[in-house]
Write a structure and sequence with these properties.
By secondary structure, this protein is of the alpha/beta class. The protein contains nine helices and 15 strands. It is globular.
Length: 303
């Protein structure tokens, strides 16, 4: 079952300082991160429409008006909150991965984003979250956003954070390294996290690239890994999580390649395995399409 969070969330229940310069905000299902230097601040992960008012309230409580709003990648559950945040913080510079505008302006993108954003809002409402605004009806306007094609460093004042492209999960995907704190904000690059139970691999744009990205993270040797959902992973040797996520992806790819029944049966089996607990806040159509992508990319990557 979905994690039991039926009570109304208090404003600061989820706010937590996870390193000297990084604060966890948002809620259990959609984690965002506030990074503060001596002069400027940035919010990483835009969440969904349903989390906008919570993020604004948390930032108001922390007395922060962010200078940067950073979109990790343009999937609906990571970008539909940007419009409301841009409206509240109009002076903020929006930073995205290269190709984000092209991705969200695809003719099919808006319909899918609207459907997913609405379903997520309803799911969160059913488990006790207060939803303060309607779901999106238009594509976010990112005409003035800074699109990061190569590694890009942002100086927040005595603190630098590096935004850099990563591959395998989504188009226009970026990760953020707060090297001074040994914190990496990786969004969904490790997969969808079921705390204490592992990951559902999410190699939607390339299996080999996904594994290479995990190796890239491992080399950086962080103490804290900021995920897009269900909070960060904080432990003395956080880097071993990358090895586990990589092994999980390889195991699923092997399972897919060796599967002897029909592709439809394979997709159904993967869907039943992973469409549980926290993943059920998304539409079943979305997750079934995700499983189809896993099958496709595994077969391409292991040929």
């Amino acid at each position: 079952m979905v994690r039991n969070m039926t009570k109304k969330m208090e404003l600061n229940e989820y706010v937590r300082q996870i390193s000297e310069h990084v604060t966890l905000i948002g809620n259990y299902y959609f984690s965002s991160y506030l990074v503060r230097g001596s002069r400027f601040s940035a919010v990483v992960e835009m969440g969904v429409t349903a989390t906008v008012d919570l993020l604004i309230s948390q930032l108001n409580h922390l007395e922060v008006e962010p200078d940067y709003l950073i979109v990790a990648h343009p999937h609906a559950d990571h970008i539909t909150g940007i419009s409301g945040l841009m409206e509240r913080f109009p002076k903020s510079t929006v930073v995205t991965g290269f190709g984000t505008r092209k991705f969200i302006e695809h003719p099919k993108a808006l319909k899918a984003m609207i459907a997913e954003d609405r379903f997520i809002s309803n799911s969160l409402h059913k488990i006790g979250f207060e939803i303060g605004r309607p779901s999106i009806s238009n594509t976010p306007n990112l005409s003035e956003a800074l699109e990061v094609k190569d590694a890009y460093r942002i100086n927040l004042g005595e603190l630098e954070m590096e935004c850099f492209p990563v591959y395998g999960h989504a188009p226009a995907n970026i990760a953020i390294n707060v090297e001074k704190d040994r914190v990496i904000l990786v969004s969904d690059s490790l997969g969808f996290h079921y705390p204490g139970r592992g990951f559902c691999p999410l190699f939607f744009t390339g299996f080999k690239e996904y594994i290479q990205t995990l190796s890239q993270f491992y080399i950086l040797d962080p103490l804290i890994i900021g995920l897009g959902h269900q909070g960060p992973i904080i432990r003395e040797y956080a880097s071993d999580v990358f090895a586990r996520a990589s092994q999980t992806a390889e195991d699923i790819a092997t399972f897919i390649i060796n599967y002897t029944k029909s592709s439809e049966r394979l997709v159904d089996e993967l869907f039943k395995r992973y469409y549980v607990d926290e993943f059920t806040i998304y539409t079943p159509e979305n997750i079934k399409n995700c499983m189809k992508l896993l099958v496709k990319r595994a077969k391409e990557g292991c040929q």
